[in-house]
Amino acid sequence: MGPALALCALACALQAAQAPALAPKATATLFGEGELANAAVFEFSARANELLADADAALAALRQGTVPDADRERTWNGVFDAWCDALVACGPDEWVAPDPAAFVKERAARDDAESSRRADGVEAAVARRLDELAEVERAAWRARVAPRAARELARAAR
């Protein structure tokens, strides 16, 4: 142990010896946010919400089997492109709704602070959708997005 460290340890020991003993609290401290008492409002990206809502509708049609076989690949590519475009459309201080379709439909009719408290970062919203894909669908996502990602990465490296 070096001299500086020994001196620090000695000072801590002396301070601890002189400090009054801490008595345990009689009642437990409850932690929790409770009701929010402020009117915090998130800025939503209308374009990103529209893109996610359209992609969600197309994905639901794919899952339900209502998309003709001839249009399935084009529809999947549209879903993947919409997710990428939503990532680009959402600014650094903007958010997306957990249910973009409901947001797009109800936002004009109801603009209260409570509805604005529920928000997702666009990255988390897209990641959640990717997580719900089957492995073969994720492979299609990677095949579709890899060229675009490589271009963007090369552009960022300049």
Describe the structure in your own words.
With 158 residues, this protein is mostly helical. 61% of the residues lie in helices and 3% in strands. The chain contains 7 helices and 2 strands; from the N terminus they run αβααβαααα. It has helices spanning 3-18, 46-64, 72-89, 100-106, 113-116, 122-131, 135-157; strands at residues 43-44, 94-95. It has a two-stranded parallel ribbon with strand order 1-2. Helix 2 (46-64) crosses helix 4 (100-106) and helix 3 (72-89) crosses helix 7 (135-157). The protein starts with a helix and ends with a helix. 14% of the residues are buried. The model has no long low-confidence stretch (mean pLDDT 79).
Index terms:
158 residues; mainly alpha; two-stranded parallel sheet; 2 strands; globular
Short summary:
This protein has about 160 residues and is mainly alpha-helical. The chain contains 7 helices and 2 strands; from the N terminus they run H-E-H-H-E-H-H-H-H.
Based on secondary structure, the structural category is: mainly alpha
DSSP E strands, number: 2
Distinct helical segment count:
7
> What ranges have pLDDT less than 50 throughout 5 or more consecutive residues?
none
